[in-house]
Structures are given as C-alpha cells and as structure tokens.
Amino acid sequence: MVKKSFKRWISGATVAGMMFSMLMPMAAQADETQISAVDYSKLPKLMITELVPDTANISSSDAYEFIEVYNNTNKTLDFKDYNLVYRYPGTSTVWGAYQNGNPNGSMKIPAQSSIVLWVMNTDKGINLNLQASDFNQNFHTNLQENVNLFRVDGGGGMHNSSPRDLVIQEKDGTDISVASYQNDDQTKPEKGIFYRFPADGTKNMVMYGSGADTNAAAATPGTIDPTQVPPVPLYFSDPPVIGHTPVAQADQKNDLILQAQIANTEQNETVSASVYYQLASQTSYESVPMTVTGSNQYQAVISKDKLTESQLNYYIQANDGFSTVRSNVYNVNVTLDQSDYSKVPPLMVTEVVPDSTNVGSADGYEFIEVYNNTDQPVNFKDYKVVYRYTDSGPDADVPWPADKEDMIIPSKGTLVFWIINNQNGNSTAADFNANYGTNLVEGTNLVRVHSDGMANASNRGLVIATNTGVEISTAYYINGDSKANKGILYKYPTDGGKTMIKYSSTVAAATPGSVDQVQVPPQTVKVTPDTLKPTLNDLTKESTLDQALDLEIIGEAKDETSLKTVALYYKTEKQSQYNKRYLKESFADTLYHYMVYSPELIGNSYMDYYFTASDGTNETVTQTKRVQIQGGSDHSSLRLNVKDGDVVSQTKALKGTGEGVSPDSLKLAIDGNELTQSTYHAVEHDAFFAFEVMGVNYYFKNGITQGQEILSIFQDPINSYKTLSIPLKAERLKEGSNAFQIRAGSKASPFDDRLEENKDNFEVKNVRLVFADGTVVYDAKYSDPNKVIKIGDSSGLSPVIDFNFVIPSTQLASKAYDWNTTSVSDGNHQVTVSNTSGGTITSNVLVDNTAPVVQPSIEEGKMYRGSFTIDATVTDALAGVDKVEALLDDQPVTLPMATSSAQLPGGAHVFNVKATDKVGNVKEVTVHFEVPNEAPDMPVLITPSQGASNVDPNASLSVKVSDPMNDDLKVTFNQGFKYDASTQGTFTGYRGAADTEPPKQEKPASEAAMTPEDYSKISNVDGNYLTDDAVEKFPYQRFEVALDPAIQSTDEVVIDWKGKSLEGRKVSLYAWSPSKLEWVALKTVIAGSEDFELKANVQAGDYANNAKIQVMVQDEIAITQNQAADTDYDFSFVWMSDTQYYSKSYPYIYQKMVKWIADHKEDNKIKYVIHTGDIVDNADQEYQWIEADKDMKVLETAGIPYGVLAGNHDVGHQDNDYSYYDKWFGDWRFKDQPTYGESYDNNRGHYDLVSSNGNDFIMVYMGWGYGDKEIDWINEVLKKYPNRKAILNFHEFMLVSNNRAPMAEKVFERVIKPNKNVIAALSGHYHDAELKVDPIDDNNDGIPDRNVYQMLADYQGAPEGGLGYMRLMQFDLAHGKINMKTYSPHLDDYNYYDPSEYPGKDEFSLDLNLDAVTKRVATDYIGVNVYTNKTIGSVATVKSGENASVTWPNLAQNTTYQWYAVAEDAYGGLRQSDIWRFTTGTSTTDPSDSDSGSGSSSPSTPVDTKVTSTDGKLTLPLGSTGEVSYENAVTVTIPADASMKELKLTIEKLNETKDLLKNNEVLASPIYELLKNFTENFNKPVTLTFTFDPASLKGGQKAAVFYFDEANKLWVQVEGGKVNGNRISVEVNHFTKYAVMAVGSAVVDPTTPAVTLNDIKGHWAESNILELVKAGSINGYEDGTFKPENRITRAEFVSIIVKYLKLNEQGSSNKFADAANHWAKNAIATAAAQGIITGYTDTTFGPDDFITREQMAEIMVRAAHLDKMAGNTSFTDNAAISDWAQVAVATLTSKGFMNGYEDGTLKPQGLTTRAEASTLILRVLKK
To answer: Where do the record's region annotations for Disordered lie (predicted)?
Structure first.
C-alpha cells in the first residue's frame, strides 16, 4: 500500500479526535489513549468485521454462512477487484463470486460501508436455490441481493471446529486483511464472530466477540458497531486514468504489444498496471504485467505462443495502491498460421484431476487422461507418465510406471491412469466408474499408477515421455486449478510445441475417458509405415572387471524415425532373472549409459547383459555379452592373510582360513610356535556397506557412521536412485551385532544436534552389507530391499537410522590373532596355518620396527663459508624409504639445496630431516650449524670529503673498508647520483590531499609546490618534519626527480623516506608506473610511536618517464563523500541480497528497488550499496542476467558505488561455474569505479574502499565456493588496510539457527578474530533475518574490546521472491550507532517481520565508534639514490681496515660529481656505500702521478681547450668544447659536458633526397645528415647554424630549420630559429637529417602535407581531421596515415590551438621550467600569455604528458572564452571528475561540445586521441 504524506496523517489524526469523542458512548470499552495513537494510514482498506461459520442447516449443511466486509476508505471500492481466500494449513482457496447479476460482476462497497458475502455450498448444492428473502428472514435483516448482499462459491463452506483464516487479497495475491477463528467454541449457530480493526497497523483483524462468550451475540450481517472500524478512513486520491488505443489485429507469428498512457495526479503514488486477456475457449482471464517505458507510458507483451486462437479479448487494469480502474474490453482478431496438424503431439494429456472424493483420508480417484492423436493404435509400453515439480526443474521429475505396461490406446482413444495411494488400494474400477459416472474397463482403457498422488494446491506438471526420455507432450496446472472432481481440461498446442493449452479448471465436471471436440485437432497425426529396425551397438569397453569397481555399460542406438525405448537387461552369475532398466540418451555424447554398481558384482564370476531398442513398431535385440568378474575370494584349501616377503610392523592381525572348515579346526603358528591363546573368529576380507539413495539436497553433510566415527559423507545432490557403497575394513566387523548409522546431516555435520539447525530429508532402500564372496546381509528390521526408508528432520521422520547386522558364522571363517611384532626381533619370521585335512601353508615375512637411517651432509656445530650443499642420505634396510621431509629454520626445503654463507643470514641455523619408511617407522634428525655475517662493513669516506669543493679535476677517491671476518676485499668505485631537497631543480616536491588511495592521476590537481621552507625541513634527518594532516581528504607528498641523462634503464634506484605518522596509521611509499599508468605501492608500514623508514629498490627503467621518476608518500586514503549534518543519521549504506527471483520472475520489484535507491541518494544520504549474492536464479538463463545488468546500471548512472558477489545460484551451485558471473559482473565492470580496490580472480572476490564523514571502510567480498586460499587473500587485504573499519560480505555465513556455517567458523577464527578492524559480516542465502553479536577481547585482558555484528538478511521466502525488502544501514555519528532498518520500495513498507511479534529482527541499533579519524604524513627526510653501473675504477685486493683509492681523471672544471663504493669479499659478501658528492675546481694535476690502485674504466675527460674542425669531422674528448663546420654551409657548436662520452661527429650532405620530399616541401638549403658515435641525446643543447638561399623564399615566407622524424617519416619544424642575414641558428639535443625550408602561405607547409590520409576513410572524425589538416593546424604522416587513435600530448594539443587561432607567438620566454628547451616552447609560452593554460604549478607544465579529457575541457573553455556554467553532469563516473574541471566539463557538455561514452561514462582521466582532439577543437573554436 502506498503511504500518504505526513501532513495527511496529521489531518486524519485531528479528525479522529473529533469523531472519536462522538462515538465514545457507544464504545465504552475503547481506550482513548490507545486509539489516539493509531496511525490510521497503515490500516487495511478492506476489513472483515464479522463471520458466521455455523448457521441453520439444510440437509445437514450450513445454509447461511456469511462474511461481512467493510470499506475503510473515502471512496467506493468494487470487491470484484479483490480476492476472498479461505485458508488453512497447506491450502488457500479463492472463493469467487457466484451468479452475480451485476454488469461485469460488480460488487461495489460504498465508502465506510459494508457488504455481506453469502457462502454458497457448491459441493452439495444445498443452498443454491435459496433467495435473499430466506437469508434476511434467518437473520432478521433487510439486505438487497447484488447491492449489499452477494453470493460467493464456497465449495464445502467454512469448517466449524478447526482453525481457519478468511483473507481479503489483492488480485496479485497480496494479503490485505485476515480474520481468523480457532475452534468449535467460537463457532456457534447464528452467533457472530466479531472483529475490530488492527490498531497495531498489521493485517490481522482483532477478534473481540464469538460464540465462546458467556453471552454470545447474535449475528448482525450488514450492521457495523462503530468500535469495530477506524474513526478515520483511508483517504484516496483520484484514481489513475487509462488512455489506450485499442489493437484490433494481431499475427500469431509476432508478440502482441499493447501500450497505454496511465496518468495519476498523486506523484508520490506508484501505479502498477496489467493486461488481462482471454482466448475464446477460455473461461478465465490470464494477466501479464505492464512495464514503465517512459513518463506515464506503459507497455505489455502477450507472447506469440499465447495467440493460439483466432479471437482474443483483453482489458487494461491499473492500481495506484488505493483505487483500481480498468478499461473497456477490446477484441483482437488473430491471424493464425495455417495449422500443421502433423506437428501436434501424437500423445496428449487432455484431462487431469488432482483433487477428488476421498477414500479414507486421501483422494481416491485422481487420474490423468492420455489421448492417442494418431491414425494408428499406440502401445503405451514404449512410453511413461512423468510427474513434474515445476519449481524444481526436470531433475526432480518422478516417473510413474503403470501396473501394466503393455496397454494399447486406439486411434482417437484414451487411456486413463488412475492414481493409487496408500488409502485406495482396495478400491475397484467399479468404484472409479461410480464416482464419475463412466464405464471404463481396467486393463483396457483404465490402468493403475501407484503414487502418493498429485498436489492440490501447488504448481505441478504431467509429462508424457518415451522410455528414452524424449518428451511428447506436457500439461501444467497451478495452485487454484484443482477442485474436487472437477477436470483441468487441456486442448492441443497450435504453435507446433509440446505444451498443452489449459482452457478450463474448477468448473467442468471430470469426464475420464472422453474428450471434447475442442480438445483435439480435426486431423490426427498420420503414422508412416516403418519397416526398418533400429540399429543397436554395444560400446561397453570392459570384458573383464575387478569386482570392487563399478561397471559402466554403454550402448549406441539409432533409428531413422525415433527411438521410443532403449532397455538394458542384465543378470549376474547368482541371479536367476534379468534386471530390466530403461535408458535415456546422454546429452553429453548421445549414447546410452547404465552403471552397475560393485555391490551387485561382488562374489560373482561373470555378468551377462543385452540391449533392446524399439521405435514403437520394430524392435532390435543384441546378442548377450558376458563380462568376466575378477578379484573374487581365494578358495584355496588353506589361506593366510600375509604372503611371502610382506613387511609388517607394530601390531598385525594374522588370519588363517580353510575352505569349508571351521576356524576352530585350524592351527595358527609363528616361528613354529602354535598360538593357543587370544585367538578369535574373524571376517577374512573387507566388505561394503551399500544402499540406494534418492532426494539428497545440496550442501547437507549426510553421513555413514559407526558410533561416533564418520566413515563417509555424501552431500552432492542425488535426484534419482543411486547406489552408494562404502568400503569397510574387515577388522570393523566383529562377531555378534555390528551397528552402522545413516544420518541426515545439517550444513555443518552429520552429528549436528542443535535443534535449530535444519537437516536434510532423503530416502534410502536396500541397505545391506556385501561381503567379498557376494553374500548379502540385512538388518532384520529392514530386510525388504524395496522398502523405502525416509530419513530427515521433518515431521514423523528420524534424522538417524541404526542398521544392525549380525555377521553369519560362514563369514567368520578365519582364525585370527593380533601379533605384537615389537616383541620379536626385526628380520625374517615364519607364519603357518594348518589343519589335519588340508595340510600346512607357510608365509615368510619381514618384521621391521626400525626407523630409516638418516645421514645429513651438514655437520653438527660447524661453521660453513662460501658455497655448500645441504642434503641428507636416507636408507632403510628392510621396508625401504617412503618419503623424506626437510626443514631449514622451520621452512620446508627441497634436497639437495645449494646455498652459500652469503645467501644465508649470518648466525645459527637448524636443519631438520624427517624420514618415513614404507611401514610407517619414522626417524627425525636435527643438525645445528652456522654461517658468519659475510657482509663487509659499510665503506667509510676518506677523500674527498662529503660536499667538498675545489676538488682537483683529476680527483682522487678514497675509502676505508673493513670486514667482520677480516677477509681481503675487492673495492669498486662507480658513478652515482643522489637527489634530495639539497638538489632543487632536479628534485621537486608537492603537497596535497587526494580522493583515492593511491590517487588516480600521476599529478593530482590542486596540489601545491613546496616552498624553500618546506625543502629545509626535509633536507636532513634532524627531527624537523614537514607535516600534512587531513580528515576528509587524506594527505600525500609527491616528489619528482629529473634523472641525469647518463642514467641507464638497468641502473638501481633506492628510494629512502624517513618520518612519522599518527600511531596505528598505515603509510605507503609509491612510484608512478608509466607502463601501468598508476601508482604502484613499493613499501608499507603501520606507524608506531617512533619514527620509521620506508625504503625500496627499483630499476630506473621501470618507473622513468621522460627521464623523470615520480615518488609519493601517503597515509591511508578513502573516497570523500559529502558531509551530512542531519540529526538522525549522517550517511547510509543499502544492503540487498538474493534478488534471484526478481531477475527471474518479478523484474518490476528489482526495478523499484534500484530506482528508489537512485531517487533517494541525496535525502537518504546513500553512499554505497552492498549485494551479497544470488543475483540471478538460473546462471545459464541469459534473460535473468540481462535484467540484473539493467537494474544495477541504474546505480551506476546515479553515481552510487556498489559491490556484488556471486551466490550459489550465480555459479551453478556446486559446479562453481563462474563464466556467466564473469561475463556480467567481472572486474571489467567495476575497475573504473572510484571505490574499487582490487579484484581476486575476476571479481570472484574484491574489496571497495568507502569513506564518509571521516570514517573509512573496507568492504571485502568473497563469492560462493571459497576455501583456504581465498581466506588467505582476505587476510592479506585486511592487513593492508588496518585502519579501515572492515565489513565482510559473503553469500553464506549465518544460518537460520543464528549459528555460523562451517566455512564461516573458519573465517571467524582465521580472519575476524585476528583482524581488529573487522566490525561486521553480512550474508544472505538462507530465508531469514538473524543477528549474532560476538564480543572479542583483542588484547587478552579479559575485557572485550569490540563487538562483531554478524547478520543474515534474506527475504526471498516472502511472496514474489521477497517483496522488495532490503536493509538500510544508517550511521549516526553523534551517538556512535548504526541504525538498521528493513524497507520495501515495492510496498513502501518498513519491516517484513512484525516488530511486535519479532522485536529486533528487522529494526535494531548497533554500537560502534564512529569518530572521524585524522590522517598524517610527516617527512623528516627523503632521498632518491641512483647506483649506476658506470665504473670509475677498482682495487682488486684490499686488506680489512685499509684504504682503497682510485683517480677519476679529466673531470670538467667547476662541476659537481657523485660516486659510491662497493666492497665485496671472496665469499659473496657485499656492501654498498652511500652516494657522496664533490665539486671540481680549476687546478689540475697529472693523473699519471697518482700512485693509487686504479684499474679505472671511466671515460677520458678532455683537456680544457676548444677542439675545432672544418672538414665536417670531429673527435671531441670528454669535457671539451668543440666546433665543426662543413663547406662553410653548416656549423655545429658543442658545449663542454654535452656528453659523458668521447664524441665522434660527422656531417654529410645528401644528394639523393627525392624519397625524403613527398609533401611539396620547398628547400632553402641542402639536406645534411649529422652523425655521432652513440645513440643517447646530448645532455646540453647543441647549436646548429645553416646558410640558406633567401631567393627561395616567396612573398611572406620565412626560413625555418626542420629535422626528419625517422619513425614517422615526416619533417618537423625546430622551434626558436634565429635568423641573421642568410644564416639561421637553432638549438637541438639530437642528431638526424636537417634542412632549411620555406614556410608560409605561398608554399605547402610541411605541417600541412598535401597527402591523402589513407586510414581515416569512414572514421567518425574524418571531416574534422581533414579540415584541421587543411588549416595547417595538424599534420598527417609521410606514409599517408593520420593515426587518429594515437594519443596526443599536452604540448601537441596546445600547439594545434595556437596554430588554429593564429595567435602571435610570444617568443621562447617561458615561465615553465620544464618547457624552456621544448620544441613547443613558443606555442606553450603563447598559450600561457593568453590565459589558455596555467600548468600543473607556476613552473611546471608537463609538455610531454598525454593530455586527459578533463584537462582538454579546461583548456578549450579558456581558449574559446566560453561563459562558464556550473551544474552537475549525468555521467556515471561524475565522482571521478576533478574539482577544478567540474565547471569546464559542465560547460562543454551543456553546449553539446563534449560527449560521454556508450556506457554512460566520461572517463575524465582517460587519455585523448588525435581524432577526439581534432573534433573538440573544431566544435568549440570554429565560429
């Protein structure tokens, strides 16, 4: 019911007070306080106010029973729009109107008035002819029929003495009000049972008077006491208005689509609508719901398979929760396909009666009628009737074999299957015929089927199938179709299908054996004569088989028409008759399989079998095949259970057996000594406990036990009888009784004795012991192998059955003795058995009670140095070695293990070896050894001192080295680089707070560059911290390091951060990965009270981008949500679960749920949604995934983050098939969601990071079928985020008993207890709502430190799959509580469970610390050290404690250098120094004068002179300046230290240039190629000066230098050329081909090549690209391509804009330090001067960074000078748009300049392509 506004409720309460004061004299018993507190808006709109179940009789039956119904609204209601239901346990029957004479069956009830429903006893017909005057006379009333007195079809009427409910329902089955009575005392003749309205707002009317009262009141039909009804009615709004254009014509080939416009004046009311339709032959209407397709637009689809007749009637009905309106009835003419009667099923179910006159306590005459729709007689022996549980699927089908198989059905004749149960077995055909007035003949057209019968009040199906399982026809009925002795009638399908069309139920009297013309087609199916027999092949592989194995028999059968029967006949050696089994075709391989289980084979020497196959006319029989069965019992005259060579140990049971002799006649001896004491009779061989079982359900741990020992668990589903056999060791079977149990288990254990836990229900039969010789023994109580034994915890069942087996003496044939072998010596011993008639046999055995010998390769107490191998030699003299296990320092290792003293930590080690021999003897050896600390001491700097200046350019480097073992050391000196706050320029810092952990961007917006004061705080480890704190947003410090060009990609980079945070916070060190485009965590520490270090080693090439490395330190981060200030709660989460039935059958409920969440995102402060699984019901049904996908996208569109997991229904239960779930809800769907953390196995598990109002949460999800590996992953995740409040989400966790499931117990012990941040675990799966609170003592002080709230909430057991109930988790920070509420958007109703009856079940509060948390990053020092592989020199041997020195020669003057030393001993120990720095001066010494050990491999450094050449060739020493020219046409000037290598340079003029000039380029000079001896770029700019020909310049053309881009095969202009006369100079950092060219309008500019772009034809941006190319703003490539999907950099994007706008360039003066020498520096400077760009900071622009979509938006708004527009955009990833870009994105999208993607996202941090850039620039800038 839709709730009215608060204002209306207040108005109602005011009126209530006024009216109640007037009613008080008539309501003396009313409690004024109670009444005034009633919320009248919650009361039922229709109420039952009086019942009379017992009245004056006619023919011994009540004649005047009635129900009084009151209209509790302000509008007239029509009772025909509602149901009256008569209910008792297990049965609900709708009592429809009877002979209503009003138009359309109207039964109007005026506002605040009543009508009386007179119950017609239609079963006996005793009061059908009475008149209204009779009724009035009986009760002294004056009611008028069809005005306020109406008749209803009440069957047999109301029961007088048993509990019953009378219920008023909506047409969809939803209860409105319920009136109940309990016993005979309350039902007295002509005495009313009176009810008052339910003041508690429930549906249950309150009985206040009945026949049980001392002065019982007479019935008063039509008269209401004012105290019975509310003083204030429900106030209805205007009813909906239906607008509809009728559809007059339809085609059976297509679905019939009906559309309507349904207007409703009350916007807060939800209107539901349905189409009701009826075929001409149908007596009742069917309905299909209408779905909302737009504003007031509704649509319904009647499936084409329903259009089976030429005439269809329909009307539309709408309900707003108060009023129901309907349209006129419209007629549709249906064009039918020309019927192909040959496609109608040959056998059809034409009538079913599930409810009949009783015999005893059960239906006595249920039947199924089958019609032969062929032109030939059909022998039903090839077919069977199957009873189907429609809600359980075909796996639950039950074949119903008839007493007689060989039954002939004549053409157009019928065969009636009479259901025989445990009550009517003695009934005769004459009884059956008498009940129905028929004349059927048993054995001819009537046959018996033994079964419990058909359900009267459930959905079921009847199937006619061949014996091979092929369905011929199916007929279905639903609850409400059955009525005693009334036929459910079916007609033939007209769509070529197999499903019969139900056209009548509960109306027509049953007619078994006869059909109506409408039921059958006018033409029968013509049977073509068939003379060909089926082909039949035996494909069974085995011809011999061990008796302990199951035998699979396989046949292949084919027929040119169809196979009706494939049967297997088999018998074993000891069976006298063949067993017959019908076989079905396997879906897997189209063959026919049957498993003969080992218990049938044991003790037999062979089994014979053959196949038969029938096509209904012809039959094929295979030859009999024999399978030899091996492994049977030994029948030698004397036998021992030990053989020659057997190895025995400990206690061994010896058995001697003689064939056919008593064990007492045997003599058993060891080493010649007869055993006369302690012998006993024993079973010789192992046996089997076997039984057939059916009905086993998922996940119940059913068991076979002996006492308290579990022998076997069976928990996989078993839907048809299957044989289970459990091996039993002979030692288990003793003389006398042997008890074994079959137990129905819970989900936890077969021994679960908790009363609240559900156990499985299943049935078994043929429970037996099978011995090795085939002997079968039964418990005397269960000796009938065909008797079904039901086991379980349902009423009347036992969850455990004991089976007691007495072992026959023939099986206790062995003489046995338990030999304690430890009492004799190891070695050979002799065991004999003998008797007087059989002689003696002997076995020689080995006794081995000695453990293996273990000889480790490691000596006890020894110190090992250098390389060595850890191993062990293991031998065993007698039994032999079985396995060897080794541990090193308690960790498993594989032997042999090669290692060294340098690889192992210095100090003591423990090596443990455990060896086991083949009879279980164990030897463990432990060895202690040690290795020294091989690592040398840290090298100590001698000279030059750290930071020294004026150092000789031939620098002497010296360190002191020492080794704890006094080993000689090799010392190597290498070049290094240290970057920290003391090296500003190459080391830059930024401060900020991001929205995610880590941030999504490389350079987050709104960060601030560090100041000189900031740098001073982080330059040294001095306790002076640079601190950033935050609560909502969370702090980080980012550092950008510009690497020296000399650094190689393989060089080691050590990042070292020192600082502190708040105790308990998690702080992480990150580096930006240019390949992954994300921040990668390198090191994490949980802060304590002291300072800590974050240190990580990486390779330069892994993280360098454009010679820069980005490093970040950050406290734990969360998604920021808006602060809420509501006093009730501050933010909320929504939790839904088990939506499978909504996806499958009730999509409108799913749609309402997600729409409500989206619509109430703001007012309910919804930050996040949880879904705990079972998204769909059937994983292989795509339509269910499509519905769920559509519905969950509503949340995505609304920008509400959510998480899901897979339930058992999503993955095929125990199949654990995640393929469907992966397709629809894999990690691809969530990875761009800002809260999404990390996926486990494609979203099988994942976690989300969610925060609001200073509280950080981690939501951890794990899907169905998890194990230890998944639990370990959950632990790893929680350890990464110890400061976040953790909520764990599973599908199964809590049971309905409020106990944990077995796997949940593991989670509780291994995850929840050790992780202090876990606050809750949520689950669904079971139909219930439970809360379990466990206090946990984290510090073991005896006082609980936290509560863990474990909750189950799954409402799918309610009607319509759960009625849309879901949980609201409302967080109240002020009071530290989570307020849990349960709400249904579908019903607009709180609490599925009545709070008065179930307090705290659906609404409760949880205590939790919700204080906001401060996050902190406090840096004391950070440095980035790069250890290169460039060796300066080395000293091979240095004594410990001595100095090592080398000379670094020929260094540049007045230049800073850095270096480090490595000390290494002969055993692999190695220690690397810190990086030291010095600066050279100007005075130089001869390096040859140095007497230090060198061996240096460093490059030579030039003398301080300029080297020149004029022949185009030059060799330039390291550190020197140089100049080389060629033909006075080109000059190259190289500054000192432009390279760290000797430079060899060559200038060549190219003569063959046609392949280089393909775009009409105009040369103003020759083309020159500049070559050098290495590939690296120069460290410093090199100046090129060219002479050009001014005459080649036309008009306003200018000269410009271009270089040839070898990769893209095009010429690129070098920016910043300076012209001096006929010479032009430029600065470059690399060599290639160069030339001077003319640029300007008179020629084709190389940036606008006149080429045909061959890769944009048909591209969506083709026209935009061509326009920009023609404008000279962007260019294509030499190969004729444009590469529209290539990414574009920030510099390239700005350059296009500057060119397109033709802005006057500002020269190379650039405020951005990182663009000072960039090719686009002029364009960047121009854009900055025009206010188009601002850069990341005042000094950084990031020209080579790829531009993002949001950056592009900001630049375009500035470039076009657009009026900015604030407002929210509708993209699903709005939350990912940076704050600074919100206005720009809104501006461009509102003007249509920028669009999102098909999935509804913008991808603001997504990178932009050349095509996208071209399009946007033209859209925005083109005027």
So the answer is: 989-1011, 1481-1513
**What is the DSSP secondary-structure string of 1574-1621?**
--SPPSS-EEEEEE--GGG--TT-EEEEEEEETTTTEEEEPTT-EEET
* 1340-1382: pLDDT as tens digits: 888 888 999 999 999 987 777 888 999 999 998 887 889 999 9
Write out pLDDT tens, residues 824-871: 999 999 999 999 888 999 999 999 999 999 999 999 999 999 999 999
Give SS3 for 754. Answer: coil
117 vs 1180 pLDDT, higher one: 117
Cβ-in-10-Å burial (0-12, 13-18, 19+) of 316 comes to buried
1552/701: higher pLDDT: 701
And the tokens for 1047? Answer: 């650094």
CB atoms within 10 A of CB 1153: 25
> Would you say the C-alpha torsion 1794, 1796, 1802, 1808 has a positive or negative sign?
negative
pLDDT digits over 778-824, tens only? 999 999 998 999 999 988 899 999 999 999 999 999 999 999 999 99
Lowest mean pLDDT among 29-38, 355-364, 487-496, 964-973: 29-38
Phi, psi of 1810 (to 5 degrees): -60, -35
**Closest by alpha carbon to 1462, among 952, 1103, 1099, 1052?**
1052
**Can you say whether the dihedral through the CA atoms of 1212, 1216, 1218, 1224 is positive or negative?**
positive
Give the neighbor-by-neighbor strand order of the sheet with 256-263: 241-243, 256-263, 297-302, 291-294
- Each residue's pLDDT tens digit, 1097-1111: 999 999 998 889 999
In degrees and rounded to multiples of 5, residue 1379 shows phi and psi of -95, 115
* Residue whose C-alpha is closest to residue 1636's, from 1676, 1674, 1598: 1598
Pairing of strands 1166-1171, 1202-1203: parallel
Alpha-carbon gap, residue 687 to 706, rounded angstroms: 14
Which residues lie closer than 8 Å to 1707 by C-beta, 6 or more apart?
1722, 1725
Averaged pLDDT of the chain: 88
Residue closest to 418 by CA, chosen among 406, 408, 403, 439: 403
The pLDDT assigned to 1707 comes to 58
Tokens 């300076």 belong to 1618
- pLDDT at residue 1648 above 60? no
Whole-angstrom distance, CA of residue 616 vs CA of residue 1275:
63
**pLDDT for position 319:** 85
Can you point out the beta strands (E) in 1013-1156? 1026-1030, 1034-1042, 1052-1060, 1066-1073, 1078-1086, 1092-1099, 1108-1115, 1131-1136
Mode of pairing for the β-strands spanning 149-153 and 114-120: parallel
Which DSSP state fits 937? P
Token pair in block for residue 157: 């009427």
Burial code (b: 16+ CB inside 10 Å, e: under 16) for 1082-1115 equals bbebebeeebeebebebebebbbeeebbbbbbbb
| Residue pLDDT, tens place only, 736-781 | 999 999 999 988 889 998 887 889 999 999 999 999 999 999 999 9
What's CA 1239's distance to the chain center, in Å?
Answer: 10
Q: Is residue 64 within 8 Å of 56, Cβ to Cβ?
A: yes
Beta strands in 126-255 (DSSP E): 149-153, 164-170, 175-181, 193-196, 206-209, 241-243, 249-251
Question: Residue 1648 gets which letter from DSSP?
Answer: S
Please say whether the dihedral angle defined by the alpha carbons of residues 1625, 1628, 1630 and 1636, taken in this order, is positive or negative.
Answer: negative
Residue that the structure tokens 């679905």 belong to: 255
d(CA 179, CA 165): 6
What is the percent of the chain with per-residue pLDDT over 70, rounded to a whole number?
94
Residues 161-179 as b or e (16 or more Cβ within 10 Å = b):
eeebbbbbbbbeeebbbbb
Q: What is the pLDDT of residue 1505?
A: 57
